[in-house]
Amino acid sequence: MSDLLLANNLIRQGLEGLIPYEPGRPISLVEKELGIEEAIKLASNESPYRPFPKAIEAMREAILNVNRYPDGGSTFLREKLAGKLGIPISKIIVGSGSNELLRLLANVLLNPGDEAVMAMPSFIVYPTVVKLMGAKPVEVPLKDHRHNLKAMTDAITARTKIIFICNPNNPTGTMVSRDELERFLAGIPENVVVVLDEAYFELVRDASYPNGLNFINDKIPVVVLRTFSKVYGLAGCRVGYGIAPEFIVQAVNKVREPFNVNTIAQTAALYSLDCDDEVEERSLLNHEGLQYFYAEFKRLALDHIPSHANFVLVGVGTDGRKISNDLMKKGVIVRSGDIFGYPRYIRVSVGTPDENSRFINELESILKDRGKRTL
Ligand SMILES: *Cc1c(COP(=O)(O)O)cnc(C)c1O
């Protein structure tokens, strides 16, 4: 039998519509392929800084114990989160990144034919986990680059099980304010789960930004997702957490892998929660990085979408993929906006001050060269 026939027979139906996630390319790979050194990655909204020293020290110790299985219940980490957030431990789930939690939520909530409402463009993982369950993503276009909450409410049907709110939204960096969220939640039926994805929570500095935890005891089931992958600098460890109604936590515990979060990740996360000053410092550095970008974009007469996160979409006035390829050749890895529906933009993550200015310098010279060639 041909591979195609085998695939048709063996691979589960419904996967045809799925495409593998295209991540930002790792630095070492780009360096090897292009034969260059010192590439910088501003493509995946990671922290440009190492994990906090306390976390690194704890991880070094933890390495010695990896002959044992991890604590399957992530008990210490959940206890610590419970104390810090003022939430009962029974409402806390920990996952191998919040990506795993997104998939687990889909696993326990969605029947074939159910619907999940989400913005478009938003986090690419939402439609993937929904389709995986044979359910239907209902994608509601952004309005002025922001969630169109009215249209999302109107998109609810009898089949709707989940609404995803990515706040701030990846890839646009725009946010839903406290007032907007309150009004929106008041209009949602109580049999729909609202997932508030707050991956960039610690980086938002706007006073009108809502804390999803304040809606946990709402009349409707709200799930808040956060992660250690961004401001905590632990993207490579894979650890995130969710706060959810107990019936959802219990369902997730039935289907998650018994040891879903590895020992190193649990340890690093636990110790990172003692680093509030460092979190604030990095949040501030990120804010300054954004302000630097905005000033430079203005100088270069480039349009941008103001962001509340650690990345920004910048209009490059031409095919974003070409510009991102040109940047790649200079060792600066960013994402082309086309995959997000912004073909004339690139998405750049905030790096260290040195990385930010290198990006700007390379972008400026690429745009100048292109300008000359078209004259
Ligand atoms: C980065 C990001 C996450 C975090 O994913 P992890 O699996 O925790 O690394 C979740 N949601 C959004 C919108 C993100 O941008």
Order of helices and strands: HHEHHEHEHEHEHEEEHHHEHEEEH
Count of helix runs? 13
User: Would you tell me the structural class of the helices and strands?
Assistant: alpha/beta
CATH class of the largest domain: Alpha Beta
Rg over CA atoms, rounded to whole Å, is: 21 Å
Number of strands: 12
Attribute tags:
375 residues, alpha/beta, Aspartate Aminotransferase, domain 1, Aspartate Aminotransferase, domain 2, 2 domains, seven-stranded mixed sheet, 13 helices, 12 strands, 40% helix, 14% strand, binds pyridoxal-5'-phosphate
How would you characterize this protein structure?
There is one protein chain. This protein has 13 helices and 12 strands. 40% of the residues lie in helices and 14% in strands. The protein has 375 residues and is α/β, with parallel strands linked by helices. It has 2 domains: 24-50 and 277-374, Aspartate Aminotransferase, domain 1; 53-274, Type I PLP-dependent aspartate aminotransferase-like (Major domain) (Aspartate Aminotransferase, domain 2), CATH 3.40.640.10. The chain is globular, with a radius of gyration of 21 Å. The strands form 3 sheets. Strands 2-8-7-6-5-3-4 form a 7-stranded mixed sheet, with helices on both faces. It binds pyridoxal-5'-phosphate. Pyridoxal-5'-phosphate binds at residues 45, 97-99, 123, 166, 170, 197, 199, 227, 229-230, 235, 240.
How would you sum up this structure in a few lines?
The protein is 40% helix and 14% strand.
Task: Compile the SSE list and pairings.
Blueprint: H1 3-10, H2 27-34, E1 40-41, H3 53-63, H4 75-85, E2 92-95, H5 97-109, E3 115-120, H6 125-132, E4 136-141, H7 149-154, E5 160-166, H8 178-186, E6 193-197, E7 222-227, E8 240-243, H9 246-255, H10 263-272, H11 276-299, E9 311-315, H12 320-329, E10 332-333, E11 335-336, E12 345-349, H13 353-374
Parallel strand pairs: 1-10, 3-4, 3-5, 5-6, 6-7
Antiparallel strand pairs: 2-8, 7-8, 9-12, 11-12
Pyridoxal-5'-phosphate is lined by residues 45, 97-99, 123, 166, 170, 197, 199, 227, 229-230, 235, 240.
